[in-house]
Amino acid sequence: MRFGIKSRTFFSYIALLLIFIFLMVLYDNNIISVYAAVVTAIISTLLIIYITLERLVKPLEEITQTAYEMAGGILKKEIMVQANDEIDELATSINFMAQQLRQNMIMMGEERNRAKAILDSMGEGVIALDSESRVIMINPALEKRFKISRKNSLGKKVIEVIRNYELDKLLRQVLHNKEPLSREITIVTPKPTVFKVHATALITNASTPAGVVALMRDITERRQLDKMRTDFVANVSHELRTPLTSINGFLETLLDGAMDEPETSKYFLGIMKKETDRLNRLIDDLLKLSQLENNKTKLEKRPVDISQVINQVKEMFTYQAEAKSIKLTAKVMENIPCVMGERELLVQVLVNLVDNAIKYTPEEGSVAISAVVHQSKVKVSVNDTGFGIPAESLPRLFERFYRVDKARSREVGGTGLGLAIVKHVIELHEGKVEVDSSPKGTEFTFSLPMG
Ligand SMILES: Nc1ncnc2c1ncn2[C@@H]1O[C@H](COP(=O)(O)OP(=O)(O)OP(=O)(O)O)[C@@H](O)[C@H]1O
Ligand SMILES: [Mg+2]
C-alpha cells in the first residue's frame, strides 16, 4: 500500500488529534494532571512535526544537492531516495532526465568527433568566423597551407590570420548579405596560390547570422594545366601556320609568274620542300608525345644493351657530323649492364640529344657520347663543344616548344619538341635527365635503373 505526502500529513494530523483526545480523556478522568497532559501534547506534537519534516525535507535536500551537481555536468550521479511517495517519483524523473541528458551528450560528443575527423582529414582548408569576423575554427589543412597555428589564430580577426583583403571582403559580404558566394582568390602562401573560396553564412534561429564558414580549395595546378593547354594549342597553331604561310607565299609567287624562271622555281620548290619536311617532323613529334602521354602504363620493358643503342645512333649521325666537320665519338664502359626499357624509345632519346649536340655546335667542334655505371645506375652523357645554353633558360628547356633562340633553332629545322620527348621517355623509364651547360659546351646526362 502506497501513501502520498498529502495522506501522510493527513494521518499525522489525525494521530495528533487522537493523542489530544486521549490526553483530554485521561485528564477528565483525573488520571493525569494538566501539566502532564500539556507536556505530553507538546512532546507528541514536536515528535510528529519532526518525523514529518524528516521524511519530507531530507529527501528534498538530497534531490536539490544532486540536481545542482547534475547542472554542473556530473550526470553520472543518481538520486537514491526510497520514500515511496511523490518525492520518489520526483527523484525517479530527475534520474531519468539525467540519463536522457547523458545519452544526448554522448550522441553530441560522437557527432562532434565525427565532424572533427571529417574536418581534420579534409584536403581543403576550412575556416569559420563569428559574426564579428573573428576566427572560431580552422582545420589542419588550412593550418598547414598558411603555416599558422590554430591556437594563435582563434579569436583573431581573419585579416590578421590570412593577410588577404579580397578574402576578408568576401567573408564580410557573406556575413552581411547572408547569401553564399564563390570566388577565385590568389593568396601568397608565400607562393602565389589560386584558391576557389566558397563561403556560406552560418544561420542560427536568431535573425543575425552567427558567422560564416569558408571552404578553400587550391586550384593552382588546375589553372596551370588550363594555361598549359591553351599555350599548347596556341603554340601548335603558330608552329603549323608558319611553314604553311611560307609555302603559300612561295606558291603564290610561282603562280604569279616566277614559275617560268627555272632557277627561281627550283629555289622556291627547295624551300617549300624544307617547310613541308618541317611540318611532317612537327606532326610526327606531336604524335609521339601524345602516344607517350597515353601509353604511360603500357611500356613493354625488356633488357636493352645500351652500347648497341649508342653505336646505332653514332652511325646514324656519321654523315651529318662529317658535313659539319664535327668529331663524333662514343665511349662505353666495358661490360656495361643492360637497362630495362623499350629499345626504340631509348634510341629516340639519344637521337634527339645527339641531333641537338650536332645542330647547336659550330663546325670543327666535337660531340662525345659516353656511358658508365654510377651509383647503381647506367648514366649516358652527350657532350658537345657548342655555344651552350644560358642559365636562365635551363629550367624551361624541357618544356614543349621551348627554344632558346627561336630564329636560330627554326633555321636548323627545330620545333622545340625534342627535349620534351626526351624528358617524357626517361621519366617513363623511372630515370632522370639533367643538363649542365657553359658557353664552352653542353652536357646532357640521363640515368636509368639497371636491368
Ligand atoms: N646541345 C645544345 N646546345 C645548345 N642549345 C641546345 C642544345 N640542346 C638543346 N638546345 C636548346 O634547347 C632548345 C630545345 O631543344 P629541343 O631539342 O627541344 O628543340 P629543337 O632542337 O629546337 O627542335 P626539335 O628537336 O624538336 O627538332 C633548342 O631550341 C636549343 O635552343
Ligand atoms: Mg632538338
Name the CATH homologous superfamily of the largest domain.
Answer: Histidine kinase-like ATPase, C-terminal domain
Strand arrangement in the largest pleated sheet: 2-1-5-4-3
Could you tell me which ligands this complex binds, including any ions or cofactors? adenosine-5'-triphosphate, magnesium ion
The averaged pLDDT comes out at 89
β-sheet strand percentage = 15-25%
Distance between the ends? 95 Å
| CATH domain fold name of the largest domain | Heat Shock Protein 90
Count of distinct strands: 12
Helix percent band: 40-55%
Q: How many strands, what sense, and barrel or not for the largest sheet?
A: 5 strands, antiparallel
Query: What is the N-to-C order of secondary-structure elements (H for helix, E for strand)?
Result: HHHEEHHHHEEEHHEHHEEHEEHHEE
CATH class of the largest domain: Alpha Beta
| Structural domains: how many | 4
Report the C-alpha radius of gyration, rounded: 46 Å
Task: Write down the overall geometry.
Answer: rod-shaped
Structural class: alpha+beta
| Spans of at least 5 consecutive residues with low confidence | none
* Helix run count: 14
Second-tier CATH architecture of the largest domain? 2-Layer Sandwich
